[in-house]
């Protein structure tokens, strides 16, 4: 980011939420970069930016789509980059129909299943076939069990390499370029003003800033956080930015890209290894029952040996992982212990798990650094779900609300729960803080850094490593001697980590196991140096292929701390970045197709003709000896099939995807839909919400009516949640500290002076905010930072709610939780909740207590006429929207189900 000429911060309040990382924005600004902040609120980030552009929460695709349209119609796209490095020239199958043709739906939508069959989105082959047809039953899965992350890993969907049809003139109407151009033609500055509330002059300022700072000599960077991800189409927000950046040549170059800002020191690490239900370490997909019953079925679905790029070697990454976990017990005869892995039977994320708790299908629950009673959407559902458990283990620094809800939670006060009736046995186990344990953390930049232990943890506090190591020992001891086949995965685990004099396992030994090592031959026992050394024959092990090299030569490279002033611009000796210590992914794109830098100013990686290799400031993210202009036989498959102009080495065709022929379950192109709850009608399509969003129609998960339907005026305002610098997430690390609690002592709501006048809200007085799920109280902060927006001929008021407070008796400060207002609607690709935009009402005064609180919520529900079906129709208006026949020829028109 420090090398950017323009930085767009959208979906993030970076200066407040990522203050350490913001130093690089400040450095870029000091060098002359323009910084623009796009956010519903004027924040501290806005105050240190060149310009703040207020936006209606949830309308980002309209703005990004209009920028794409601006770039194409004004002929400002980076033609040489786009033509060589993206799939712009590839032709799409003739059966494809766009959302522009079908009133907001793409071809292949099945209203009975609430899901797409994506085969019509695929590429067209030279022989007239298609590339990337569905390879499993995922498109016919029940809506509640869909999650694209359990289908594809970091390499994306497997595509058999084929000679696809291309038109390098980009004139054929079936080229990706022309499809993108048509799709965004109606995303205009006028539409932005009408849907986002952004004035035409502000849009022009933004568009000029981005395009004038892109191209050969200059680069623009986007930065986002949960303001983009926590939506029912959050993955498509980021896809829209990726399309724009690819058109402008802003991927793989210094000061370019789309920076996903992580809110904790190792959130990146927790998805790398991971803590996600649908992934194995290194973004290998979790096997699914019925789809991956054998290792070969899993490998065939995961990656094809005929596709281009390094993801074709996923078999080596998988088998090395199995060897790391089960060692000598993983053999060729038992398919490397693949059957030891559990299988997914659907989506098993946090929200599906809570609903399973309410059905008494879950007996026990571990909470590790999580406080769902406060920090997860629909806090009431979370707390009621935990009341159905037999046992609950909470590991944390303090007695958080998720450990005490059974005696002082909101449902105790309302009478919905009685302590004496709750049978859940709660175990609180104190955890060590970050300074009381050693280990690595992986941050936003994919950089592993080593944390040395500063002091010993007090009392019985334990690190996660020590806790799980000892838990594993105890479980294995109880199972010793068992001849039950289901116990073999636990008994056969490699669980032999060296310990210190206190019995604590050595974290560097774990890092070495994650790095991997040779098991056979002359290098047996030697650490692997790079993931390309992994083999699918059982001769190597490695706990996370993307981390291979962090322990090369037996050295902990995460602990590297050479000062930047003593090394080159990429600072390769500070920490270690995955994969292979590359600081910029896809950096082959920093040079033109002939291997020369696009400009001297943005020089980064280039082809050295004398050395016949790629050289530069970083580790080349490309086969180091693959010359520009190389055209190997595509039948080779894998890395050997990459051409000299295929910089996107993990993609199945080596190109950056402007159009996604496979891999996304809600459309091949980002398309604007309104949120599950919105007082604004979709101005682009009759389809109001994303038809593929995951909804959970339940009496305890009611939704507010959308614009244009009965009862929408009962919840007329938009609220959005956010975090503060002074508090950390759900408050477990900050509301127990007096000096931080003093800085932000009370839950509050930010409202504009206009809304305060309309609703009779007094500055620093109390307000009650009501949604279809709950009602909370907050102190009123009247501020010009919240600006009313003119949208669709109406004024839209937005309310800002920090989400750090919770109701309990142990913290220094407590208060109502913003997340109690939220319902559960999920992005179908990644299963993340929509918590950045929802509908509410606000009125002066404190909320009622006890049963009167429930009566207030019910009274609003009755006035709005909300039912379980409200807002949960997959197709908004079936009669207004034609649905193209699926590939089988079956027409899929008609009424959509109440999914």
Automatic annotation (TrEMBL):
Pfam families for the chain: Molybdopterin, Molydop_binding
All residue ranges annotated as the Molybdopterin dinucleotide-binding domain in the record: 717-837
Cofactor(s) needed for function: [4Fe-4S] cluster
Source organism, top-level taxon: Bacteria
Key words, A-Z: 4Fe-4S, Iron, Iron-sulfur, Metal-binding, Oxidoreductase
InterPro entries associated with the record: Asp_de-COase-like_dom_sf, Formate_DH_Act, MoPterin_dinucl-bd_dom, Mopterin_OxRdtase
Main subcellular localisation: other
Domain Molybdopterin oxidoreductase: 2-377
Renumbered residue ranges of the record's region Disordered: 123-142, 870-899
Localization (cell): Cell envelope
Family indicated by similarity: Belongs to the prokaryotic molybdopterin-containing oxidoreductase family.
Name assigned to this protein: Formate dehydrogenase subunit alpha
Organism: Arthrobacter liuii
